[in-house]
Design brief:
The chain has 329 residues and is α+β, with helices and mostly antiparallel strands. The chain has one domain (30-326). The chain is 35% helix and 19% strand. The protein is built from nine helices and eleven strands. The strands form three sheets. It has a six-stranded mixed beta sheet with strand order 3-2-1-6-11-10, sandwiched between helices. Strands 4-5-7 form a three-stranded antiparallel beta sheet. The protein has a two-stranded antiparallel ribbon with strand order 8-9.
Length: 329
């Protein structure tokens, strides 16, 4: 009987040791979400529609002959984790230059172009690796690396899997690109930056500084045309004379349309400033000559039961047009 009790004791001790090791490993190991930031090659001025139009045009003219260039900057995501067989490199992008040209030059949608639902796609790892190397050589590449739990990584992977699934047997959310989208809303695509930050939002890993990188605008209806405004054609002179965003009393989706984007150039500058400024909770590093900031969010608490996709809280003129286009009420 005594010998039997000793066997039970050692068996319990072994189980306890294994569990303790597993808990310690989970604590010590972590998953990583890295946002690679590629700013515009020339700065944009977001202070007014006129200023943005002018600087976007200047940026286009100065970089028209530059290969492997993202005109408005870009953001790509790298996922690394013991729960993955190999790292994942992914980004949301638009798919057709001709489509943009038709909207701007033929339909003359004006500032409707920044909220329009365009043909989109997920970039391949091969092309992203190439672009990252190009931007690194230009010294126009930086990163934000978030340490997260394995539980958080599983949730992110589940989201990406559903984001790629067909909505109505024809299209997936990732087949659409647009500045009005928030990827966490049902059946919506995204822009490159909103896709990256939606992944962090899923696991409560967004930091207060994220607010500094946002551009939240009210676009005046007077500079929105095409299918977003009864077929109205917007003249360039109208945009050039619009010296401010909508800033008075008015009705949303009638007098103005809300727009939000995370600006890669602002993120890039913030990362570079962190090298010179001691910011608590942020560690500046360089990996293979690429500057970046490490942010530890392993202890972030999130609701595992919250749906991956949420209902849009209020209508948006751009999204309404998109819903009609893909046959969703």
């Amino acid at each position: 009987m005594v010998q039997h009790k000793h066997k039970i004791f050692f068996l319990l001790l072994l189980i306890y040791s294994v569990n303790s090791f597993a808990e310690q490993t989970e604590t010590e190991e972590f998953s990583e979400v890295t946002l690679y930031i590629m700013p515009t090659m020339h700065p944009l001025d977001w202070s007014s529609p006129a200023a943005l139009f002018k600087t976007m045009k200047e940026c286009y003219v100065k970089t028209i002959g530059l290969p492997d260039n993202y005109l408005l900057g870009h953001l790509a995501v790298r996922l690394e984790s013991p729960v993955l067989e190999k790292p994942i490199l992914i980004a949301q992008t638009s798919g057709s230059v001709q489509e943009k040209t038709d909207l701007i030059l033929k339909q003359k949608v004006g500032f409707g172009i920044i909220g329009a639902a365009l043909t989109g796609r997920i970039e391949t790892e091969k092309e992203l690796e190439h672009k990252l190397n190009v931007y690194a050589k230009r010294k126009k590449l930086a990163f934000l690396k978030y340490k997260v739990s394995h539980k958080a990584m599983h949730r992110i992977l589940a989201f990406i899997d559903q984001y790629k699934q067909k909505i109505n047997e024809k299209h997936a959310a990732c087949d659409f690109y647009g500045g009005a989208f928030w990827p966490r809303y049902h059946n919506e695509g995204g822009a490159c930056s909103t896709f990256g930050f939606a992944l962090l939002d899923l696991v409560n890993a967004l930091t207060p500084e994220t607010e500094l990188w946002k551009m939240e605008l009210k676009i005046p209806a007077e500079i929105i045309g095409g299918e977003f405004n009864h077929g109205k054609k917007i003249k360039n002179t109208t945009i050039k004379n619009t010296k401010s965003w909508f800033n008075k009393e008015g009705k949303v989706n009638e007098d103005y349309v809300k727009y939000l984007v995370y600006e890669p150039s602002i993120m890039f500058d913030w990362i570079m400033e962190t090298k010179l400024v001691d910011r608590v909770g942020y560690v500046f590093v360089e990996e293979k000559g690429i500057p970046g900031v490490i942010i530890d969010k392993r202890d972030a608490v999130f609701d595992e039961n919250e749906p991956l996709f949420l209902p849009r809280p209020e209508p948006n003129r751009f999204i309404d047009v998109y819903y009609k286009k893909i046959g969703i009420k």
